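Why do we care about 3D structure at all? Because function follows from shape, and shape follows, mostly, from sequence. That is the central idea of this module. The next example makes it concrete: a single protein chain, its amino acid sequence, and then its structure expressed as tokens.
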Amino acid sequence: MGMELRHVRYFQAVAEELSYARAARRLRVAQSALSRAIKELEEDVGAEVLERSRHFVRLTPAGAVLLQEAGLLLEGWEEALRRVRRTAAGEEGELRLGYIGPPTQPFLGRLLHAYRQRYPLVSLHLEERTPERVWEMVAKGRLAVGLTRPVPSHTALGLRTALLREEPLGVALRADHPLAGRGSLRWEDLVGEPLVVLARREGASLHDAILAACRSAGFMPRLAHTPSLIGTVLSYAEGGAGLGIVTDSVLPPGTPLRFIALSPAHTVPLVLVWQEDHDAPAVQRFRELLLAWQAGGQLWMPRAEGASGAGE
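And the structure:
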């Protein structure tokens, strides 16, 4: 027979009260049941822990050690139960979040702050990756949830998704560029212009959407640069090396660049992805908060003055 926590609690009560009668009243159990439990505990530990007679109850040396250890054991057990309950409620645990950087910058910091305010005991781990890598890591269980773009293989990975936003494509350009004075731009206006587009290996959906829009407008784009980072796309545009073709979410506040949306409109989705089989409560609470923010219009706030241009 293995020692039960019930036996430990009963022993602790008797040892603290030094009276079977008072301990029985405290525990609201029959005194006979209490006496039987103590005997079973002594059989389990192989030592007498209480000296008892008609006139007194006192601890043996072994009992004094057991009382000290019992307090630690029961305290640890109660904390374990609290952690179990918090984890089941999504108030404790781990959230491993993968994301693509620039498109999530307008809201991710604020969202994570709100999440940590609500669930301070959840351990948060962030990994900025390419869209393809986010999908792969969520599918393999290395990330719990991802903020990313669709990828060519996303259907085969079998992940759950929720659309956060269809982001319009447009031109990021210097204020002194000849096209910057235009109130609007069409894709045909880009014919012959040097374009700066994110490399396909870093973002296939964005890269392919831009090329498809150019082909629909009847021309093949002149790709001046295809860097690996959106920040580098913007640096090339700011340096006058070409027109950056980006979504409206990636221009940082205070940038000297203007953003002019292109027509006809072409968009690139930003999606939330997760694996249904590994949907821990902490992940569910994060998803609920994110989708509530989306529904309430809190994800994309108005851009700072001067960071956007005509056509947005």
